[in-house]
Amino acid sequence: MNRESNFMPTPDQDVLEVKPLRTLAPMFPAPLGVDVLNRSTVPPLVFVAPAGQFPGVFGSLNIPAVRSFAAFGGQDASGGKTASGGVQDASGGKTAAGGDQDAGRGETAAFGGQETGRAESVANGTPNVGASATGPIDATPISACKSTQPSVISLDDDDNDDEPYSGNQTSASGRKIKRPSHLSGYNMSDGLGADSSNGTKKRPKSSNRKAATDNEISLMPPSSDPREVVEVLLMTFEALRRRHLQLDETQETSKRADLKAGAIMLASNLRANIGKRIGAVPGVEVGDIFYFRMELCIIGLHAPSMGGIDYMNKFGDEDDSVAICIVAAGVYENDDDDTDTLVYSGSGGISRNSEEKQDQKLERGNLALERSLFRKNVIRVVRGYKDPACLTGKVYIYDGLYKIHESWKERTKTGINCFKYKLQREPGQPDAVAIWKMCQRWVENPAARGKVLHPDLSSGAENLPVCLINDVNSEKGPGHFNYITQVKYLKPLRSMKPFQGCRCTSVCLPGDTSCDCAQHNGGDLPYSSSGLLVCRKLMVYECGESCRCSINCRNRVAQKGVRIHLEVFRTTNRGWGLRSWDPIRAGSFICEYVGEVVDDTKVNLDGENDYLFRTVCPGEKTLKWNYGPELIGEHSINISADTFEPLPIKISARKMGNVARFMNHSCNPNTFWQPVQFDHGEDGYPHIMFFALKHIPPMTELTYDYGDIGSESRGVGSTRAKNCLCGSSSCRGFFS
Known about the structure:
By secondary structure, this protein is an alpha+beta fold. Among the domains are: 135 residues, PUA domain-like; 279 residues, Beta-clip-like (Beta Complex). It has 10 helices and 28 strands. Strands 5, 6, 7, 8, 9, 10 and 11 form a 7-stranded mixed sheet that branches. α3 packs across α4. The N terminus is likely disordered.
């Protein structure tokens, strides 16, 4: 009976195709000798370490070598059950939560290999072959060799809320930190070095891989600020995921890029808040949003990659389970209409076969929730909602700390008895889900938004209305300016150098070497299938009017204008600002900086101009948006402040402009500017487009880094130096 395998190799493991004889134990060629499977008194089975180059981290895993090896590392051949004995979620376990949304297809479980083995497997993935007349041949072990059994990581937890834990890590208090057995191959310590003590055979490293190892520590910020560490980890994850997806599309494979990125980060020990805890997680703020369950895992907010209940098996000095975090993602019948109250359904009750249903049992995660009712400990709550920008995606919102106030059993629509837990939100926390639902009502009915000075500041020029809001004071609006949506150049476009477009018919396709626009961008299309910018470049080339492809080409993103619901609002101390009603995903296009291009003479005559955009060097965070290429054997394309070269273009939005003129400065920004070309070929005067640097929750002010005052060789006493009021922990004090 074929079942999907949970086998997930780590990036450093080697795997070869295995075709064992039916009458003998499986044997593998080894370049370094023979390893002993056991040390019993009977002649041991010969077990030889796998050898050969495992496909690269971007390569397809759907190959016979992986499928054959998965039979001995992932499942029980007789029953098809995973080693951990996980429980399926209500959807039948066919689709992994938080699937790759860029693909837009809702692929089923990741890296699925078919079960082909016959021997019964034990929990560690080693075939359990007993001695018999037809058993394995006797062999004398080579005593100098050590057993090297490859570690297997399963990132698809099958909703296993209480997977077995093992390990001997200790917390600051001296208590042992337990970790998932399926992550036992990784070093879970606070260090960033690779774990070399677990006996895992390492893949021969290329020079690029060695460079990755040498630079792993450099990926982490020198600051001890937990918030900065969490943000860097999430940026790294997103950069890896987008790059994986880009390469998978080029190779015409459909894999879970989020799980690939997560596996690389776990293998490189790039994670935060190791060890389970009750209460708030350092570096994670109420209202933070996520698009993949793996993001919750790597920052230590919620450990199971699929299970809805995270818990500890020890409470203080007592051996008693206690729940620490739950994810209400709509898999079960959860009532979350009230923003401060959540009725959460327990886990279990539905097996792999959707026709086999049974009552939920008071065990594992359900038992932990019941114990938390009596312990009265706080529980982190993450709520999942449909992603308004992706039909198959979800957005996960961290809604803060709750407590369980009561529990009961009731019969569900499917006919099983289900545990119900009523949780109440702790007072005094910032709003999160309440803001989400409020913004969704405004999107559906803009008239519901209060304190509106003008329903559409753009007067219909933008694709969506731009509200003007003031709920701070009595000011009636910003100073007068002409709202335009296209840059006004010094000379007509027809007199500028023409842009050399592509000759693709219909649309540009990933991996098409004949596409001129792809070649302009280094060989790859710069955007994912859902329109996310893959990485920051010196210049992004979109298809334009000179291209033969249609307007629906995926390489036409920023030129199509604003696609999110924006509002200009009055801030408390920084004039007018810009924010969105929609959640904005990292890499999403936001808006263009529009105004009139001015020359140096005009700049000097105007003197002080608060609406002048220059391509001065931004902060380090913006320059390092492409975190992690070293982790996958690629050369870093980040630009340092020393090598940054500004462009000659200068845009003034004092008299004419668009919403971008209201974006304030921050030393810890959530957007960045990217030069984009599509309608002319003079690279010194590109379009300045803004993209999301990280996931941005609704009603969060949109900011970018105006640039360091030192980037133009000007001191703090310069006329352009201004006091910074961004309030971030990394504030430089001044900006240009």
